Amino acid sequence: NSHIWNSCRTGEIALGIEVPERATYIRIIMEELERLHSHLLYLAHGSEVLGHETFSMRLFYIRETVMDLLGMIGGNRVQYGSAVLGGVRPRCELDAMRLQKITEGMDLLEEKITAFADRFVSDPMVMSRITGVGVISQKDALRLACTGPTLRATGVAMDLRREMVEYDPFEFDVITQDDGDVKSQLLMRVLEIPEAIKIIRQAVRDLPDGPITNRKVAD
Fold first, then answer.
1. SS (H, E, C) 22-78
2. Distance between CA 27 and CA 169 in Å, rounded?
3. Most exposed residue of 2, 8, 96, 149, measured as fewest CB within 10 angstroms of its CB?
4. Dihedral pair phi/psi, residue 125, rounded to 5°
5. Between residues 84 and 3, the one the model is more confident about
6. In degrees, to the nearest 5, what angle opens at C-alpha 56 toward C-alphas 133 and 65?
């Protein structure tokens, strides 16, 4: 979804194609759902490598909520490709039922990820295995052109969403960690999940009326 949106966005800017506001909000919902599934997948595999099978299986179970929502909206749990030039696919229109399902999913996810986060940071075995391990310094992260949570885990508050006009209506915090170790990398994902949920809730609440594709492009 991220790659497709980026390609569409590049073409739209270059060609001066206006994207309906409703379509932009749907794109953001899909983008943040994808962020949620990506972060949960990262945490699940990280827990597996740590040898904590219970955490790993629990996280994969929590992730199912997100995958079901992506499948419901896009028609596929993985290759949903919601963005098209000038808007989103008709399949991705959000009616009242779908919006309610998204809200319920965020309620469930928030409850479960909060419980997981409390367990995660208080588990001495987990903390002992990830603290001070696999450190990348801020200098090296910048030299190697690291991006996203990997860069923010070294203390650099850089989030491209802050540069995108599409995200201007939404309130969210840019999460950072300072140590650049595995603990910081994992905590980045844990702490960014509530911010993604916050953005999705705002998009559902404020979803504007109107078309979801630029008719001139669609026709």
1. HHHHHHHHHHHHHHHHHHHHHHHHHHHHHCCHHHHHHHHHHHHHHHHHHHHHHCCCC
2. 14
3. 96
4. -65, -45
5. 84
6. 125
